[in-house]
User: What shape does this take?
Amino acid sequence: MGKRTTWLLVCVIVKIWMKGVIALHRAKKNPGYLSNPASGDRSLSSSQLECLSRKGQEKTKGFPGADMSGSLNNRTTKDDPKGSSKMPAGSPTKAKEDWCAKCQLVRPARAWHCRICGICVRRMDHHCVWINSCVGESNHQAFILALLIFLLTSVYGITLTLDTICRDRSVFTALFYCPGVYANYSSALSFTCVWYSVIITAGMAYIFLIQLINISYNVTEREVQQALRQKTGRRLLCGLIVDTGQYNRGFLRNWHQFSTLGTRAFHHPAEDIV
Assistant: This one.
């Protein structure tokens, strides 16, 4: 009975680990890059490219704060190169297209230009240095799943290690008080690794919590940072929650929208492109 339980536990751990690897692989894939229609056709003449560029600039005319060149009189952010234009984060009106001078295309609402990737990403949340890719519309769900699986496996590994080297104490107590743990090299090394793992896991847990809060209020991390800079967001719980109010449609509808990211059949009335 003990062997069957052990093998069952091993199978469950391996299956969870494989799911984590698959989720991480999906998170590193295309996050929703916006491609320039003109870039796919090399046969286009220079006059045709100028025409496409002029059409994109004309669409941005009439925006609040826009000048004749199509760029907004709004300060550029570090994730958006100079020459890109965008709507103010606090605009209560419908989300509008804007023109990215770097990519030479008209990007939809909530799309941003990543200066690291050098391309616009649809519904960009942030650029994650750990997966070396942006987190956007097409891979945000996989990113959350991978983060959750790694958190669970990390907590399980910490618990298993502490239970092995400090059998007569609870996990939380053993983390701060485990007499005799430095008696031999293996237990001392394991205990030190546990503490490093706890620090990393705490950081991952904080990122995961922020992500859950942002999803619940239907904001991206990019929009949160912009709202804080321009002081247009509503801050709650000492700044842990930032609600821009532009796309928030209620807890359940926000999560429903997140669960359907990347599906073309789902319509986003608050993100209509005009």
